[in-house]
């Protein structure tokens, strides 16, 4: 019997030593704890593996996506019928480059990056200590909090460019070519049927000399503020909606009396209206329905259109949600 595309990919992963999981529940890899199985879940751990792996994945003809820590992802109950390339914990080295520069692999968690910076007497990443994403996802989203955002500290990225045809290749891109704005980078526009896909492999941050104790104290203060304000006791994907111009999503949702509203196991958090939480056993469908109700009620009562910040993964990234 001829080998299937999945068999061929598995054989290739074995050949290059890339860890993989079959029919892996995405609920294990998303902070929402929601999502059915991915047909193949790849966990590359060396930069040199990436271009070849990306080529094999593209050539397989299967749908494929890249994921980081899954902290901004709502994955479908049916799962994903293709390949997920996880740039996560297995791809997470952090090293000092000198002159305040930090080189991080895409799967390094922001918590680890901010702690590593502080421990080495560098300041500038404290804002990121409580964001549960990895570096690649944070660049992709231009993640930010408490007045800081990734774009302010990013010098450059190393990425794998995966053209429609021809060999994928590694390239370094300076941060000023990444078209950053509020929770936006050029990577998000790339998905809209562009000529190539890009996988972030590494990022270099420019930090400034700081004081270890001051940085650690600042981080503890920010983490404490999160613990007080955010429903961290439940799985979620953080803020469900982007901040609309001229207001705040949580304020509008609260004004409409929607705190505590439930669909199945999904609830608009009673602690922070900007979060939808999984009370236990929530399905993707529950969350989608709740999002639609919140959007409709806020639109009717305030005129604001809330756009989701959370990314829906069905057969691919579903940008409209
Ligand atoms: C409790 C909680 C609090 C949060 N607080 C904040 C906050 O304060 N500020 C904030 O900005 N966000 C916050 N978030 C949301 C989330 O942590 C961020 O959006 C984070 O940047 C997502 O990173 P990730 O690694 O989890 O990416 P994922 O969720 O895995 O992926 C997000 C997107 O990035 C793409 N991507 C990921 N890695 C790569 C890569 N290597 N190459 C190319 N594309 C990639 C994926 O394809 C996907 O489209 C919070 C989430 C939770 C659960």
What are the main properties of this structure?
alpha+beta, Uridine Diphospho-n-acetylenolpyruvylglucosamine Reductase, domain 2, Uridine Diphospho-n-acetylenolpyruvylglucosamine Reductase, domain 3, Uridine Diphospho-n-acetylenolpyruvylglucosamine Reductase, domain 1, 3 domains, 5-stranded antiparallel sheet, 4-stranded mixed sheet, binds flavin-adenine dinucleotide
The count of DSSP E runs of length 2 or more, i.e. the number of strands, is 20
Shape: globular
- Topology as H/E string? HEEHEEEEEHEHEEHEEHEEHEHEEEHEE
Helix percentage: 25-40%
Main-sheet strand order equals 6-7-13-11-12
Strand content: 25-35%
- Tally of structural domains: 3
N-C termini distance: 40 Å
DSSP summary: helix tally: 9
CATH-defined architecture of the largest domain: 2-Layer Sandwich
The structural class is alpha+beta
- Low-pLDDT runs of 5+ residues are none
Radius of gyration from the alpha-carbon trace, in angstroms = 20 Å
Q: Could you describe the largest sheet, including whether it forms a barrel?
A: 5 strands, antiparallel
What's the CATH C level of the largest domain?
Alpha Beta
